[in-house]
Every structure is written in structure tokens, then in C-alpha cells.
Amino acid sequence: MDIIQAIILGIVQGIFEWLPISSEGQSMLILLNALKMNVDEAISVAIFLHVGTSLAVIIKFKDEFRSILSGADRELTRIIVVSTACTGLTGLPLYFILKSTFSGGTAATVLIGVMLILTGIILGLNKQSGHKTIDSVTLPDMIVLGLVQGFAILPGISRSGVTMTTLLLRNVEQKTALVISFLISVPVVLGAVALDAGTILKFDPVHGLAMLVSSLLVGYIMMDFLLKFADRVDFSIFCISLGLLTLILTAGYYVI
User: Fold this and answer.
1) Does residue 250 have a pLDDT over 70?
2) What is the pTM of this model?
3) CB contact at 8 A, 21 and 235
4) pLDDT of 30 strictly over 90
5) Using an 8 Å Cβ cutoff, are 50 and 56 in contact?
6) 22, 115 in Cβ contact below 8 A?
7) What pLDDT is recorded for position 109?
8) Residue ranges per domain, the chain?
9) Is the dihedral of CA 196, 197, 200, 206 positive or negative?
10) 1 in helix, strand or coil?
11) Cβ pair 20, 5 in contact under 8 A
12) Contact yes or no for 60/191 (Cβ under 8 A)
């Protein structure tokens, strides 16, 4: 990896993290097929790329995080704590399975294609907003949200896509669902980075900084873009189309 490639990866992360298209899936496709990384290293890079976008969330929602840390907003704190704990129940086993099962880039690419299609199907299930605000989110809502978020460790499953869809299916209003989806991403990313710290600390510091800065800047800009224009794009069709294209290209590799 060179500095330009690192910046491009950061830009890809910043663009796709907030769109229900799986930023990890896009990054993994580049890392496995263009940069020819092994699966274990590619997963670590994909996880690290989320640090920049998490910093963008912290900056964007600094007032909310200040309220959480001061204990002023107990409902939001409860949502984050419960959902994060439940995310670990599904995310940790899947993380270790992913690291140990897929030894080749082709197998991981097939997984990405299938998961992108699954994300598209999930997104197409419900397009209506509910009525629940943050104060109305129940304990079962938090548990389901956290368990579902854990599946986003799989490359191709969009964390923002499945969490937003889950909240909408639980009758949470759209704006509230969007904010909650942003906020609950931060502790999960920090946990994933800590889990993979042994590999991440071996990254070239210049490349790491390039990925961090580019993903932070682009991610911050994209949050504003999403809030203004996301309701005009059908991401379910986009995900399914991209997943099918991924599988077709992978199958073509064997034919050739």
C-alpha cells in the first residue's frame, strides 16, 4: 500500500460508512482484489478505517456525547450501553469465525457479494418511519438493535443499513433512528479496534494517518449529505445490484 492508496481507502470509507451499502464491504473488495492483501490483514485495515469516521461522529454530535458522559441524558446512555453489550454477543463470535474461516480472498469476496444482496433485501423490507422518540425506545428495542448490529462485522453487511432498518421496523421515527445509528457506532468501533490492536499497531504510521484524516474529513461531509439527500435514493436496489455484480465477477474469474 502506498500513500495514494491509503487516501483512497479513507475516501471510500468516508463516503460509504453512512450509506447503507457497507463501507467494510467496499474496502474489503479493494484490499483483497486490488491490493492483494490476505483476509486477516484486510479485516484489520477495514476495522481501522472506521476510526476516522467515528471521530467524525464524535465531532458532529459532541453535545450529545457531552450529555452522555456527564450523565445528563440517561435514556441515550442506556440505549448505547445496552445495544453495545448485545452487539458483543453476536459480533465477537462472528469476528473470530471470520478471521479463522476465510483464508482466501475469493471466499471472502463471495461472502461480500451475498451479504450485500442480503443488506439490499433487508433495506427493502420497510420504508416507513414510526413514532417513537429516544425517550420511547424500549429495552427490547435496544436488545434487538444491539444483536443485529453485531452482524455488521461481516463484510458486506451494512451497519448503518441494518441498524436503521431495525429501528424503523421497531417503529422509531426516521430522524431519531438516524441519530441513534450514528451514536451507537462509536463504542462498537472502539471495541473492534481494541480487539485488533495487535495488528493495527503494526501499520505504517504515515499510511495510518492518511487513512484516518481522509476518512474523518470525507465522513464528516457525507453526514450532512446523507441528512439532506438520503431519502431520494433507493439503496436497497443499489446493494442488490452491487452484490450480484460481485458474484458474477467472482464466477467469471473461475470461468476464465
Assistant:
1) no
2) 0.79
3) yes
4) no
5) no
6) yes
7) 63
8) 3-255
9) positive
10) coil
11) no
12) no
Q: DSSP state, 138? A: -
- Taking CA atoms, 175 is separated from 72, 92, 128, 164, 165, in Å, by 21, 29, 12, 10, 12
Question: What digits encode the pLDDT tens for the residues 98-157?
Answer: 777 765 555 666 776 787 788 778 767 755 556 788 888 999 999 999 999 998 888 777
Span 207-231, average pLDDT: 87
The radius of gyration of the chain's CA atoms, rounded to the nearest angstrom, is: 17
Q: Hey, what's the torsion of the CAs at 58, 189, 162, 157, to 10 degrees?
A: 140
Q: Which residue has the cell 433512528?
A: 177
Which residue has cell 446493494? 239
Amino acid at site 247: L
Rounded percentage of the chain residues whose pLDDT exceeds 90: 33
Are the C-beta atoms of 32 and 39 separated by less than 8 Å?
A: yes
**Closest to 130 in 3D by CA, of 180, 75, 174:** 174
Confidence band, pLDDT 50/70/90 cuts, at residue 254: low
Burial class (CB in 10 A: 0-12, 13-18, 19+), 167: buried
Query: What one-letter code names the amino acid at 48?
Result: F
Say which residue the cell 439490499 belongs to.
Answer: 120
DSSP 204: -
d(CA 220, CA 159): 17
Q: Do 119 and 239 touch, CB atoms closer than 8 A? A: yes
Residue 58 identity: I
